[in-house]
Amino acid sequence: MLFGLSLRKILCGPVLALCFSITGLSVLAQDLEVLEGSRRKEVSSRTRDGLVFYRLSDLAEIFQLELREIGDQMRVQGPRATLTLLDGRPLIRLSDEYILLSKGSWRLRAGDWYVPPDFLDKALPGILNRKISRTSSGALRIESLGSNSVRVEAISYPDHLSIVFRSSESAPVEVRDFQDFIEVVYGGYLVNPEYIESPAEPGLISFLRFIPEEGYGSFRVGKGTRFRNFRHYELGSPPRLIVDIYGDPEKRIVEGPAEASDETGGVEDRSPVDETSPGLPTTSPRAVQRGVVVIDPGHGGDDYGVDVYLDELEKGISLSIAQKVQQMLEREDVGVHLTRFRDVGLDSEQRSAVANFYQASLYVGIHIGGSPAPSVRGPVVYVYSSPDAADGADRNNASEVDEGRLRLVEWEQGQLDYSANSRVLGALIQRRLNDVFETENAMVSVPLDVLAPIMAPAVVIEAGYLTNPDDRERLHEFEFHERIARAVASAIRSFVSAEYAR
């Protein structure tokens, strides 16, 4: 490396130190040194317009990131999320969020990209499960992050709702106030959301969910139509953050159909029934909100799902679509719960149990298909059929006990009472997705284990095939994920509002 003759200027960023040697004609940047335990690695640097940039491929090797170049875009896949860079633009995409860097990333040649220094501070933490810290001028240290298990519980009081964030570690936590939501951001440890209780407070909050891409993990509490203000404070032993949310008493809550208590203390459902469609309740959207819509992104963790060319995993696409469906429905005050909201594995029994635990209004599993025949393409919606007989034929084999409002049903018999509704929901989704894919595919009945126990209308979607070249190209685009999610959300809204009766 060449050095300047007289002047040496030190520029220090918030996470790393950058050293420049300056002459009258050129600027030479010191390569970045990354320390991990006793190992030392270097990241090549390059200057452009008098500013230093670091080679992305070196960072990818050190931090074990996957890079995929598509035209003027570069996708950076980390263990927690995916970044999308655009050549020459400072705005980068982190899942559904956007981050503004000081300068745009740029491509020297195909596959050879460079990023500005604040990429390491603003972008990398959102996709890594390791900690980055500065040790000296021009040197970084990466360390494993400890885990902070956070349990979220809700307590209702006469005049407010308390949301309690109970953590296993005493970690720094910041509460931020935005126009539409409150954000609780943790530091120091990688957050592991142990449990999130969905508060039953209509209008006070609109959603409560975990955002893994924000720092080391954050929670967002959506402000409902009755939200007025909030306060927060911390307690110890165990470490707790309490967020008290207060509503506007002058705004009345619009309730669903009237309920009357029966002699056993249960609740009688007075929802009207459409006699033209036997077994299909014409419940209003307000009534359906009492049970959440459960969206199940397929696969996760070590289960990649379809992975044809090692560049686009089914588990990532299904989660992307599921999160978009969740956002679209929650904007209309429909309660939604995801079976997973990060890259973790679940077996089919766990997925079914989540739907039954939340007494779901309906369940939608989202997958991406794969087939030995590359010509197979487009969406397919699956509904449950008994492996032994037609729907309802083995009803006498189901073990049921009525105890007031409680019905005990054998685990594998849960779907039998809901097969007709499931077919209606499936037909709606199939029709909407056919419009998106420009296909005429038909809904299919199969004895899927994940659907059998669910005591609610339930379907599984294959949203296109990664083994088909046309579908695969479209499924690579975030905009196409939006179109799929919009079709699914539209079908769900039609189902719960009884528009399917027309």
Strand and helix map with partners:
Elements: E1 7-12, E2 17-22, E3 27-29, E4 32-36, E5 39-43, E6 45-48, E7 51-55, H1 56-63, E8 66-70, E9 73-77, E10 82-86, E11 91-94, E12 97-100, E13 106-109, E14 112-115, H2 118-122, E15 130-136, E16 139-144, E17 147-156, E18 161-167, E19 173-177, E20 181-186, E21 190-196, E22 205-211, E23 218-223, E24 227-235, E25 240-247, E26 260-261, E27 267-268, H3 285-288, E28 293-297, H4 314-330, E29 336-338, H5 348-357, E30 362-369, E31 379-384, E32 401-403, E33 406-408, H6 419-437, E34 444-446, E35 458-465, H7 469-475, H8 478-496
Parallel strand pairs: 4-16, 17-21, 28-29, 28-30, 30-35, 31-34
Antiparallel strand pairs: 1-2, 2-3, 4-5, 6-7, 7-14, 8-9, 9-10, 10-11, 11-12, 13-14, 15-16, 17-18, 18-25, 19-20, 20-23, 22-23, 24-25, 26-27, 31-35, 32-33
Helix pairs in contact: 4-8, 6-8
Commentary on this structure:
- By secondary structure, the protein is α+β, with helices and mostly antiparallel strands.
- The chain folds into three domains: 137 residues, 2-Layer Sandwich (Copper Amine Oxidase, Chain A, domain 1); 101 residues, Immunoglobulin-like (Sandwich); 230 residues, Aminopeptidase.
- Helix content is 18%, strand content 37%.
- The strands form nine sheets. It has a six-stranded mixed sheet with strand order 29-28-30-35-31-34, with helices on both faces. The chain has a five-stranded antiparallel sheet with strand order 8-9-10-11-12, with no helix packed on it. Strands 21-17-18-25-24 form a five-stranded mixed sheet, with no helix packed on it.
- Helix 4 crosses helix 8 and helix 6 runs antiparallel to helix 8.
- The longest helix is centred in the last third of the chain and has 19 residues.
- The radius of gyration is 26 Å and the shape is globular.
- The N terminus is likely disordered.
